[in-house]
Amino acid sequence: MEILPEVVRSQRRGPTGATRRTGPVSPARTERLARRAAANAAPAVSADQTALLLLEAMVFAARADGHIDDKERANIHNAVESLFPGRDMAQVLDTLLNKPLDPASLASRIANHDEARDLYRLSAMIIDVDHFMERSYLDGLAAALKIAPEEKAALDSEVEETKRTAIEPS
């Protein structure tokens, strides 16, 4: 799943090398990050297992403050359509929406530190951290993924920079 840093770095500058600001990250951008991470998962893990893990991480992050807002719902919907094309995922989503938030469960299914960093980035990308419960959830996720505080701060900075300077591909 170690494709997100490359994607993050490549999206910071436009074709001329200048940083471009385009506003908040679109649901399509979040969905593309999830799809790319699922496509590059370790071969020992099936694509469906990776896609389900990514979906669960997105739903958990979105639920961290006690509700899922319209932007988060759109991001999840777009990810479901991309990760599970043509499949009815209503029952899976219903299960995830009622499952207790458990960062340790997510962390237990991560194969290596690069995947842990990618899962953290995706979780941070799906939400706007504007509530203490979202911050607390991300802190717990980072701890479960064994991401050191300094590294977490760097990942948070990357995510915020990506959100500010995301460039939609032409």
* Count of DSSP-assigned helices: 9
- Helicity level, as a percent range? 55-70%
Uncertain spans, ≥5 residues at pLDDT below 50?
A: 1-24
Q: What's the overall average pLDDT, rounded? A: 79
Give the CA-CA distance, first to last residue.
Answer: 24 Å
Secondary structural class: mainly alpha
Please describe the biggest sheet, giving its number of strands, its sense, and whether it closes into a barrel: none
Q: Say how many strands there are.
A: 0
Describe the fold and architecture.
With 170 residues, this protein is mainly alpha-helical. 64% of the residues lie in helices and 0% in strands. It has nine helices and no strands. Helix 3 crosses helix 7 (113-126) and helix 7 packs across helix 9 (149-165). The chain starts with a helix and ends in a 5-residue tail after the last helix. The model is unreliable at 1-24 (pLDDT under 50).
Short description:
The chain is mostly helical and 170 residues long. The chain has helices at residues 4-10, 27-39, 47-63, 70-83, 90-98, 103-107, 113-126, 132-144, 149-165.
Keywords:
single chain, 170 residues, mainly alpha, 9 helices, 0% strand, globular
